[in-house]
Amino acid sequence: MQVSVESIGTLGRRLTVAVPAEQFEQAFAERLNRLSRQVKLPGFRPGKVPTKVVEARYGGKLLEEVAGDLIETTLREAIGTQGLKLAGGTRIRHKPLARGQSFEYTAEFEVFPEVRKLDLAGVEIERPSVGIADEDVERTIETLRQQRVTWNPTDRAAQRGDRLMIDFVGRLDGAEVEGAKGQNATVVLGSGTFVSGLEDGLIGAKTGESREVPVAFPSDYRHAPLAGKTVQFEVKVNEVAEPVPPAVDEEFAKALGVQDGGVEKLRAEVKANLEREAAGRVRAVLRRNVMQALLRANPMETPASLVAAEIDRMKRIAEAMRGAGTPPVAEGADDELYRKRATVRVALGLILAEIVRARGIKPDPARVRARVQEMAQDYDAPEKFVEWYYADPERLGEIESTVMEERVVEELLATAQVRDAPAGFQELLKMDVSID
């Protein structure tokens, strides 16, 4: 068997394999004799059909079958002897088949790119250094208060933050707009629940008052018939109510699940929760910084077949999540956006896989359980959450992959120059954690 390799671009390879005529003929003769003993044809006893008769009827098919078998065995051997690592499927073409002649075929495929940099020696990585301040705790408690407000009807003019009960109808050129009508609808001024402009137009209104509120829709509004148009809304205010947040006292703490210890225990639990949130966010920011450093250290051309497969996977996930009402990719995202994200994910996957292989990293069962238990703290029955996770190997495998990636990040950080950057909790929440 003769083998030659030709490069097609950076990752493409064309493998040419030539099988000697003797080997091809032997394989054909063996298959022909085997079929002659098995085939049944009119006028011949079973197993006594002459090979010439069998070849005349089935010769073309037999040649293709022999070629297929030889490709399967010789291609694997040729790839191994050449030290090639395939990154996707192969495209195979063979020359015309005939008895007594050598068999030659070509296989085109992509190989994995070389990952040259398996550490971050000499690279500076920024790590957020965050502490939870008293104002972070108070801000969170205030958010919890606002989530539990009661509403007190008032005769004063409506202001931002008030809740209004309204009847409304929208008209365009005198005709009612489909879907722009409601009775006793609830709107909190400034919440953005209603179309922009309508809530602002109700500031200052009182209970029992009727208003005409013109609302100009933007030119890129998602509902084309209203894009760039001005709709006249007739609104009647049935009630204006002001928010009354609860006092921060022992009853408030109990309502949030703190049965003993009162407000101070509540503050302690809020702080602990914020510290867990901050720790998770720091991990996410640090992961992003490390991954971006890896990508910069390993510029590569990604195999087109792997990128195409990742795009297909992303689109299937997006379609499934869109059906559930939570699309992971912006509505109307074009193929270029998918391609960009898929290319980054494939490149990172190849780099991380090589680091895991080179360092022999495996999931640590103790760390996996610790991570599941940490996640379980956000649930009312942590023990049952842990049992639920461990009941499904696929579900648990996701945590194992996360823990392995964290291990990679830790080991890479040990080779890098890490610089702690002080930051506030609110600043931390605004930090970008996306990689693609």
UniProtKB/TrEMBL annotation:
PROSITE patterns cross-referenced by the UniProt entry: FKBP_PPIASE
Protein name per its UniProtKB record: Trigger factor
Substrates-to-products reaction catalysed: [protein]-peptidylproline (omega=180) = [protein]-peptidylproline (omega=0)
HAMAP family listed in its UniProt record: Trigger_factor_Tig
Gene Ontology cellular component annotations, sorted alphabetically: cytoplasm
Domains: entry comment: Consists of 3 domains; the N-terminus binds the ribosome, the middle domain has PPIase activity, while the C-terminus has intrinsic chaperone activity on its own.
Name of the encoding gene: tig
Record GO terms (molecular function): peptidyl-prolyl cis-trans isomerase activity; protein folding chaperone; ribosome binding
Compartments (UniProt record): Cytoplasm
Lineage, highest ranks first: Bacteria, Pseudomonadati, Pseudomonadota, Gammaproteobacteria, Acidiferrobacterales
InterPro entries: PPIase_dom_sf (IPR046357), PPIase_FKBP_dom (IPR001179), Trig_fac (IPR005215), Trigger_fac_C (IPR008880), Trigger_fac_C_sf (IPR037041), Trigger_fac_ribosome-bd_bac (IPR008881), Trigger_fac_ribosome-bd_sf (IPR036611), Trigger_fact/SurA_dom_sf (IPR027304)
PANTHER family per the UniProt record, alphabetical: TRIGGER FACTOR CHAPERONE AND PEPTIDYL-PROLYL CIS/TRANS ISOMERASE (PTHR30560), TRIGGER FACTOR-LIKE PROTEIN TIG, CHLOROPLASTIC (PTHR30560:SF3)
Biological processes, Gene Ontology terms: 'de novo' cotranslational protein folding; cell division; protein transport; protein unfolding
Organism, as annotated: Sulfurifustis variabilis
Superkingdom of origin: Bacteria
Pfam families according to UniProt: FKBP_C, Trigger_C, Trigger_N
Occurrences of domain PPIase FKBP-type (ranges): 161-221
Keyword annotations of the record: Cell cycle, Cell division, Chaperone, Cytoplasm, Isomerase, Rotamase
The protein's role, per its UniProt record: Involved in protein export. Acts as a chaperone by maintaining the newly synthesized protein in an open conformation. Functions as a peptidyl-prolyl cis-trans isomerase.
Entry EC number(s): 5.2.1.8
Similarity comment: family membership: Belongs to the FKBP-type PPIase family. Tig subfamily.
